[in-house]
Amino acid sequence: xxxxxxxxxxxxxxxxxxxxxxxxxxxxxxxxxxxxxxxxxxxxxxxxxxxxxxxxxxxxxxxxxxxxxxxxxxxxxxxxxxxxxxxxxxxxxxxxxxxxxxxxxxxxxxxxxxxxxxxxxxxxxxxxxxxxxxxxxxxxxxxxxxxxxxxxxxxxxxxxxxxxxxxxxxxxxxxxxxxxxxxxxxxxxxxxxxxxxxxxxxxxxxxxxxxxxxxxxxxxxxxxxxxxxxxxxxxxxxxxxxxxxxxxxxxxxxxxxxxxxxxxxxxxxxxxxxxxxxxxxxxxxxxxxxxxxxxxxxxxxxxxxxxxxxxxxxxxxxxxxxxxxxxxxxxxxxxxxxxxxxxxxxxxxxxxxxxx
Length: 356
Ligand code: SF4
Ligand code: SF4
What we know:
Order of helices and strands: HEHHEHEHEHHEHEHHEEEHHHH
Bound molecules: iron/sulfur cluster
Helix content: 40-55%
Number of domains: 1
Number of helices: 14
Strand content: 5-15%
CATH superfamily: Aldolase class I
Oligomer: single chain
Radius of gyration: 19 Å
């Protein structure tokens, strides 16, 4: 229940409740649909935030229920477990998400174990990327043997989950031109071979390494989301169902937004959601290239940075232009702050309860 107190506190205050922190731009993959590839190419010249700097940052946040530690490949940071503990201890983070390409099996398993032991009240979500079965996955991700490595990582995490029920293993599939005709096969494979807490599908984003990656059929995407929803196992527990209801509703909104090419809801990025780069640059989201400032220039104080003139102008811009996109994480976070969607979320949550 303490987890949900953290959500409630994050919901009520005026600070961000969801932080996406790219802990490193280093990566050991070369994914064709990667949207972070330009940063990855500059990785060796970057001055990443140190653990001391991250500690100062966490001390300035108010309750931050949800933090996602991405990259690059986040497990390339040797101190990824220490970073999690800082967010857990200093800002009450209770939902910690780490996406991974699954290549570094033993590191991922050892660091996850450490996090679970040191942060017992947190829900640790490891999102394993699976974009194809076997060679298709390797081809999309540019690493020979990646699929087998990801499967090995799944098996190690599965062992860990038996000891730590607060570990969730999720699969994340990027819907791109390279796999759009294979998605039902992928969904079927995951369902038959892995016992995952959730399988989500996200649309390839703008500015991908290969422009071709995002040439997808939005109708085909909708078809895949429908298959996924039909074949999903019911979530256990009331809050898990509500969260699933939120995921389903955000996928529906992403589809509608892409189809109608206009906003379906008011985006709260820049206020309740922020993105921080490995060097401390703060953005309202992963898509809008409007830098608000660098946290190093504001004494590591997010409150100060978000009170700046640039931050206010950015939020005004998002509101006045009715900014829209199909980025599911952004939509998901905005849903919590758009009460008119609550009945829809509840309907999606109850639908699963009936199918249990
Ligand atoms: S998509 Fe992720 S794993 Fe692939 S290259 Fe980009 S950052 Fe690395
Ligand atoms: S609508 Fe999308 S692109 Fe615009 S601010 Fe929100 S998350 Fe960013």
